[in-house]
Amino acid sequence: MKKKKKKYRHVSKFEKILYTLAVFLLMISPLIIVFTKSTLSEVNYEVEKLKKQITSQEKENESLEMKINELASLENIQKVIKEKGLVYNNDNIKNID
Q1: What tens digit of pLDDT does each residue of 56-90 get?
Q2: Residue 2 — very low, low, confident or very high, per pLDDT cuts 50/70/90?
Q3: DSSP per-residue letters across 43-79
Q4: Which of left, alpha, beta for 56 (phi over 0: left; psi -120 to 50: alpha)?
Q5: Do 87 and 81 contact (CB within 8 A), yes or no?
Q6: Where do the structural domains in the chain lie, given as residue ranges?
Q7: Cα→Cα distances 12→20, 25, 36, Å
């Protein structure tokens, strides 16, 4: 009986590079996933922080608008006029919005 010779398939350089690249990508992909998730988490934290600042600023703006309206009220204007000894003339008042 003849012994069967095992035929070894020769692997080319291109295939070696391709296999090495595939193994490298499989090993590095979990690290990339973790890095991107951590970056996303950091960005979400910054977004929430900015939303909180926006809300705080909006409340302050509303408060200041109410103060402006209070100071610009007709009663307050008449009070200041009387304190300064001026005459109130409605025809000379111009409203600017």
Answers
A1: 999 999 999 999 998 888 888 888 888 888 876 77
A2: low
A3: HHHHHHHHHHHHHHHHHHHHHHHHHHHHHTSHHHHHH
A4: alpha
A5: yes
A6: 13-90
A7: 12, 20, 35
